[in-house]
User: Which sequence fits this backbone?
């Protein structure tokens, strides 16, 4: 204390600055150590506004990492080998705002894949994958801006209902195209363009369902009629046989005559 009081002012400031810098460096080292210890293997974690950005781009991952920091605000998983987004894949990331799954090999998205992040997620990139269809529930209650471009979409009623509820990224909305279609003549066209032209895949779906139900009901009706005819004919055959049997029996008068004959002989 006496030494500090006897030290010239510039030197005191130098010592104070050195002490402050040491504390800052120690804090940075502790923060880096904390991030490193909770960061998934093979990924790089950084800090953004006190939260964690997890960078796992092009790491040959075939599934979504499980050991993600709970304060992850951005999860970048593009250019990997992921094929499926399972149910509740991000349920332990309550602060997730940005999710990039582009340029993978995703074929299926489970119905509850984004359950737990629907309120916080702001951007979702699923472009350049192998997705043909998704359940209607998969994007339920999502408020994120979504990229679905460059996937081999099968245009039918479910996709139409899914797109109706989404906030598609306006920059890539015309790149969401029909690879195949339940209606002829729409393959290769942007889905939005097809829908804007007045095409309603769900009307066709309902008509197809009605025809299928009619065919099924007609089949059942035919089976019932066939059974009734068989039953009647079978009973007629039994009745004919029974009648022939009765006719083959001797009559009552003949029995009486035979009885009288026997009595006379006796």
Assistant:
């Amino acid at each position: 204390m006496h030494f500090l009081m006897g030290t010239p002012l510039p030197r005191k400031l130098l010592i104070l600055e050195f002490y402050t810098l040491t504390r800052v460096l120690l804090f940075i080292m502790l923060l880096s150590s904390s991030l490193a210890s909770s960061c998934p293997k093979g990924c790089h974690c950084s800090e953004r506004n006190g939260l964690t950005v997890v960078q796992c781009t092009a790491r040959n991952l075939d599934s979504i990492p499980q050991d993600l920091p709970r304060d992850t605000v951005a999860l970048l998983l593009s250019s990997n080998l992921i094929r499926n987004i399972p149910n509740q894949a991000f349920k332990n990331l309550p602060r997730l705002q940005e999710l990039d799954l582009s340029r993978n090999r995703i074929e299926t998205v489970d119905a509850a894949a984004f359950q737990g992040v629907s309120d916080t997620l702001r951007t979702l990139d699923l472009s350049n994958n192998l997705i043909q269809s998704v359940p209607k529930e998969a994007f339920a209650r999502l408020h994120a801006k979504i990229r679905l471009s460059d996937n081999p979409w099968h245009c039918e009623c479910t996709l139409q209902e899914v797109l109706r509820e989404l906030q598609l990224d306006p920059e890539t909305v015309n790149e969401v195209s029909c690879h195949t279609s339940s209606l002829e003549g729409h393959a290769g066209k942007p889905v939005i363009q097809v829908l804007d032209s007045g095409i309603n895949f769900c009307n066709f779906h309902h008509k197809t369902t009605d025809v299928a139900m009619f065919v099924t009901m007609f089949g059942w009706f035919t089976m019932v009629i066939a059974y009734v005819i068989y039953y009647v004919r079978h009973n007629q055959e039994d009745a004919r046989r029974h009648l022939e049997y009765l006719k083959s029996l001797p009559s009552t008068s003949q029995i009486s005559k035979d009885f009288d004959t026997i009595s006379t002989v006796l």
